[in-house]
Design brief:
about 40% helix, SGNH_hydro, lipid metabolism, Rossmann fold, SGNH_hydro_sf, about 10% strand, 5-stranded parallel beta sheet, alpha/beta
């Protein structure tokens, strides 16, 4: 498994302020501040795939009622999420479930390295939040037509399905299966830019995710299985 410090995708790293407005750090600081006041049952962490979900009705309808926080920043890699979680975004909160969705922006890393980076985040979450369950969402296919990045994301998912069950309190929820049509194309009705989801696309993934979260939240501690895999 590639989830150790020798893996470049598992090395915590902040985002360099190349544009000069320090927006990334400002968002991180806001999340750290939110930790001081909020008592979430569900924490969402990741990149723009999680961040943009908050802009759609599906968030207000299905996830906000679960006392959810959204700690996601567009463009983040596994390295950036690791840094944020190690620098205050888990302080003072004890969510029952963490939803993690990150990895599609790790362009400089191999599929095995990306999966190792996601595994490193899951390990950090299980050690920092010993009572929380971790739900890792599979990476989605991307691009209108078949391309190497689709193949890479599919390979990441295969590694995750093999590795994550060993953590005990982590599982993969595969949300990738409904977006590629029989001709190999992805519809702009699902992904407006063939990467980010539309409202229709979010509804496709939201139902299975919502069902799983409700199942976990409804479990009594003595009824919780050792593993959800």
């Amino acid at each position: 498994m590639s989830g150790d410090a020798l893996n470049p995708a598992a090395v915590a790293q902040s985002v360099e302020d190349v544009h000069g407005d320090d927006r990334w750090m400002s968002q991180h600081t806001r999340f750290v501040q939110e930790c001081k006041d909020a008592e979430p049952d569900v924490l969402f962490v990741g990149d723009s795939m999680i961040q943009l979900m908050q802009q759609y009705e599906v968030w207000r309808e299905l996830f906000s009622p679960l006392h959810a926080l959204n700690f996601a920043i567009g463009g983040d890699t596994t390295c950036n999420v690791l840094w944020r979680l190690q620098n205050g975004e888990l302080e003072n909160i004890r969510p029952k479930v963490v939803v993690l969705w990150v990895g599609t922006n790790n362009h400089q890393h191999t599929a095995e390295q990306v999966a190792g980076g996601i595994l490193a985040i899951a390990k950090l979450l299980t050690s920092s939040l010993p009572k929380a369950k971790i739900v890792v969402l599979s990476l989605l296919p991307r691009g209108e037509r078949p391309n190497p990045l689709r193949e890479k994301n599919a390979a990441v998912n295969e590694f995750l399905l093999s590795w994550l069950p060993r953590l005990g309190r982590a599982q993969v929820l595969d949300v990738s299966g409904d977006f590629v049509h029989s001709d190999g194309a992805i519809s702009p009705q699902d992904m407006f830019d063939f990467l980010h989801l539309t409202q229709t696309g979010y509804r496709t993934i939201a139902k299975p995710l919502s069902d799983l979260l409700l199942q976990i939240l409804d479990e009594k501690p003595e009824e919780q299985p050792a593993s959800l895999i």
